[in-house]
Design brief:
Strand content: under 5%
Radius of gyration: 22 Å
Low-confidence stretches: none
Order of helices and strands: HHHHEEHHHHHH
Largest sheet: 2 strands, antiparallel
Strand order of the largest sheet: 1-2
């Protein structure tokens, strides 16, 4: 299950989405995530699904690879659906003694599951098509206006990029530790919940030790390369908008208009 998490991974490919300016992809992801919380009808989610499927096709990332990331949150999806189905008041559809399934509950559960799925897939699409270095440059350039307010934009962008880079690294490390402990006879699947929590200690301790060791090595590497923040640093490949980026912004504008139209009509 740990290897199924795709958030933070980069999928190398030669696609129009990979070649876009990272600022365009950051703004597009933000707009898409916000729009998911504005829809109150299935028509709205149909518009969001068409937009998302179009981006997936453009990215040349296999759909099976992207959907693989949903396996890790399957329990969360089921839990969300059950809670909303049984605890949402409204017109009863099916009754089980003191509990009942309402029409409003089924509708809300469907909306929540669709929203979570689109949220995970849409967010994963950003990291799958953008390298960590490009993501850092995009964050730093996109948030450069905050420097007027003395916000350390370069340091924040670097921290976020390092955090995203370390997600797949730590997941791989966790998987390796679990297999090593299982080879030594550790059992993580049997017993009550207290015993299962205690069984996680042999995983968490070496994982934290490994994480701190990697962080120390990264700090030494950055210090040896005289990294002192973004002040005065130059870029090997400075970001410049191209024709494709302008077209992408116009496409986002069309999507925003569609979202507003759906909200007003439906």
């Amino acid at each position: 299950m740990i290897r199924d998490i795709t958030l933070g991974q980069y999928y190398p490919a030669d696609s129009a989405l990979h070649r876009l300016d990272p600022r365009v992809k950051l703004i597009g992801t933000l707009i898409y995530v916000v729009s998911l919380f504005l829809f109150q009808s299935f028509t709205g989610y149909l518009v969001a699904s068409i937009f998302l499927v179009s981006l997936i096709i453009m990215s040349h990332v296999p759909l099976s690879f992207m959907l693989k990331g949903l396996r890790a949150i399957m329990i969360l999806l089921v839990f969300t659906a059950v809670i909303n189905t049984f605890l949402t008041p409204g017109r009863p559809l099916v009754e089980f003694g003191r509990f009942s399934i309402t029409i409003e509950g089924v509708r809300l559960a469907a909306f929540m599951v669709i929203r979570l799925v689109f949220l995970i897939v849409g967010s994963s699409l950003l990291t799958l098509t953008t390298t960590p270095s490009d993501l850092t440059d995009g964050l730093e350039k996109g948030l450069s206006f905050l420097k007027v307010f003395k916000v350390p934009v370069s340091e924040i962008a670097m921290m976020m990029s390092i955090a995203l880079t370390f997600i797949p690294v730590l997941l791989e490390e966790t998987d390796r530790i679990i297999k090593a402990q299982q080879a030594r006879g550790a059992d993580f699947d049997s017993g009550n919940i207290i015993r299962r929590v205690k069984a996680l200690v042999p995983i968490l301790v070496p994982l934290f030790v490994s994480a701190f060791r990697r962080a120390n090595e990264l700090a030494l590497a950055m210090e040896s390369r005289c990294y002192r923040g973004g002040q005065g640093r130059t870029k090997l490949h400075p970001l410049r908008y191209k024709k494709a980026d302008i077209i992408a912004y116009l496409t986002l504008l069309v999507y925003i208009v569609a979202v507003v139209a759906v909200g007003l009509i439906f």
